[in-house]
Amino acid sequence: MAKDGAAKLSKNLLRMKFMQRGLDAEAKKQLDEEEKRIISDEHWFLDLPELKAKENYIIEERSYVPCEDLVYGRMSFRGFNPEVEKLMLLMNTHKEEEDEEEDDNVSRMETDITDEEMARRYESLVESMRKKFAKKRNRSTITKSEADVNCNDADNQPKKVFLKPQD
Amino acid sequence: MDTIHACFKEKIGEVLLPGDVFSFRLPESGDGSIKTEKTICGPGLRRNGEEVQVCKSGILRHKQPNMYWIDSQQRRYVPAKGESVIGIVTAKSGDIFKVDVGGSEQASLSYLAFEGATKRNRPNVQVGDLVYGQFTIANKDMEPELVCIDSCGRANGMGVFGADGLLFKVSLGLVRRLLVPQSEIIKDLEKIFPFELVVGMNGRVWVKAKTVQQTLIVTNLLETCENMTSQQRQTLFKRVADGCL
């Protein structure tokens, strides 16, 4: 191995990590720039002017269904096929709901119990749950205040809190 | 795009011929202030660069806010994505069924495209069955594909139907008249007797009523509705209703 002064190391070797630990910041920057130049020279690109994708304002629609708002194709009349009649209601109201999304039309569902019964049931339910989890001391106060519509606490005794001795 | 709408508005309700062009100039892209709306060209209209060309002869129709299409008559069906059609199964090959939908090509229907179908649990479809399905792929470059489920995996009435009943072909214009919401023909037909009807956008209609005679009556009525004015139709229906009952 003939030594010509400083050993001639190839560029690739110099680019390896273990050779760059000894370098200072400037040398590193120069090496980086050289690399970038090489890469950008080799990088292939199309030599065309920049074409902006034109935003299409015209949309093509091939089907008649959205144009004329056609309904669902299966139909049954006068109860001939109850399943199809149910389907008709389902699919056509589904379509109407999409149209009326902007209006707040809440379709009323058929109920077995009236709203008032539901409210009453909930009232008593809330009452019983409260009693269940209330502390023993408070349980008697809950049952007392039923008759009063406004649930005023004026007649009830004030809650017993711990009184600190004043000594 | 007031310019487009202005061009179109003049012609709404008029008869247009193929080759008529609506052209307009797009505003300069530098003007950010002008808000451009989208125009939807329905069937019969085609976009050609920045112009809109008419490719079918008929009457120009408009729907708010920005939909335009040509209302024309034809009997030959061209598959379009999203339309529900009645098909006849013609062949079973491997994993797909070949279905005749009345177009230039037969559509393919995968056996997995039915509700509750798995590789082990194949649907019970035989050659010659009627299926009601929707197109997922339908363009001029590829073979059309049908499915019998919707995007959530539910059947929604699609699939094999109809043990009895009668299948016949009508023009596409009549099909659209039947499927319009609040269709008069349907309202008049309802009054006569109970029956079941499946209408496919490919011009095929399947009817089933209690007796063979009633089925044939409904079929004949639908076929004659094609060329009648609403007055004539109503008198005819009344006569049939009186005659039946």
Automatic annotation (TrEMBL), chain A:
InterPro entries: MPP6. One of its GO terms (biological process) is maturation of 5.8S rRNA. Signal peptide: none annotated. Residues 105-114 have a biased composition (Basic and acidic residues). Residues 95-114, 133-167 are annotated as: Disordered. Coiled coil: none annotated. Pfam families: MPP6. It comes from the Eukaryota. PANTHER family: M-PHASE PHOSPHOPROTEIN 6 (PTHR13582:SF0). This is M-phase phosphoprotein 6. It comes from Onychostoma macrolepis. The lineage of its organism: Eukaryota, Metazoa, Chordata, Craniata, Vertebrata.
